[in-house]
Design brief:
203 residues; mainly alpha; flat; disordered C terminus; transcription regulation; DNA-binding transcription factor activity
């Protein structure tokens, strides 16, 4: 029997994902790939759902290990870079967005808190920061879902002549800019005290 461990199982499962796509990934195929009996995989993952969760976590490694924001970073530039890093990571794996969708970033909670603290310390209201980060995350997953679905159709058919061809990267950048502009506007509005509430001058 081939000697395996949890990390090898996940790594081979991700390679299998790249080869056959998410719908075709099975513990039977994975066991055959590893040269082991299928029941032996249950030593590492009790269910296929547990395996997929571990795969999703491992697939996020490039984004999860990216440098965290420093106190003197511009929060707008960081927001853009962070979201772009997330998109690039999802695109690294076949069906990466589908694999990630619905997963819980249990091992990334400290990093998420650091990012939120950075935005708040930079002047972004906490609720707006939370909402914008969630919106950017879901927008990115949705964008990549569409992009990977288009890339995986492979039927050779041409779109109707009157239907514009979508440049996925340009569409993503345009949507991301709208999210950032909205967040920046809300932040600026909250930073300006309403008329009549300015602090009285001290003599």
């Amino acid at each position: 029997m081939t000697k395996v461990n949890r990390e090898i199982v996940v790594s081979e499962a991700l390679d299998l994902l790249d080869e056959v796509g998410l719908d075709a990934v099975s513990t039977r195929q994975l066991a055959k790939r590893l040269g082991v009996e299928q029941p032996s995989l249950y030593w590492y993952f009790r269910t296929k759902k547990d395996l997929l969760a571990a795969m999703a976590d491992a697939a996020m490694a490039p984004h999860a290990t990216a440098p965290l924001p420093a106190p003197d970073d511009d929060w707008r530039e960081w927001f853009l870079d962070n979201t772009r890093s997330f998109r690039r990571t999802l695109l690294m794996r076949r069906d990466g967005a589908r694999l990630h969708a619905g997963s819980t970033p249990v091992n990334d909670l400290d990093r998420i808190r650091h990012k939120m603290d950075f935005l708040v310390a930079s002047g972004v209201p906490q609720r707006e920061a939370q909402t914008a980060m969630l919106a950017a995350s879901r927008f990115t997953v949705g964008s990549v879902l569409e992009e990977q679905a288009d890339a995986g159709s492979g039927d050779g058919s041409e779109p109707p002549a009157d239907m514009p061809v979508i440049d996925h990267e340009s569409a993503f950048e345009a949507g991301l800019t709208l999210i950032l502009d909205g967040l920046a506007q809300r932040t600026a509005t909250r930073a300006v005290p309403p008329p009549g509430n300015a602090a009285a001058p001290r003599s």
